[in-house]
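Lab channel / #folding
Pinned by the channel admin:
"Please post every new chain as: sequence first, then the structure tokens as a reply. Keep commentary short and put observations after the output so the thread stays searchable."

First post following the new format, from NK:
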Amino acid sequence: MPPRPTATTDQLRHDIDRGLTGDKVHSHESAAVPLGTDEEAAGSPIDLHLLAVVRRRETARRPRPARNSLVSQEMDWPAVAVWIAVVLGLAIGVSALLLWA
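Reply from TO:
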């Protein structure tokens, strides 16, 4: 008889909240509907063996490093360029109004 898997949806949720899956940083996020609720309500609970495999694979991912600097490789440069253009446009517009007034 194979060993009974010990993974639960609560453990997977806890792993996600701790940042062990690389999906988010360590923080608690209250869920309106906890993992597995839909399956339980439908009368088809999650297969515990499948859940154990999913939890093992998700926590085997390497978490992303924290972004410590303003300039990083993951920065969205087009969005930064748009914000710079907006700020410069506002500065030029305000200075033009002040000079012509």
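NK: Helices lie at 9-17, 37-41, 48-60, 77-100.
TO: also worth noting, Residues 77-100 form the longest helix (24 residues).
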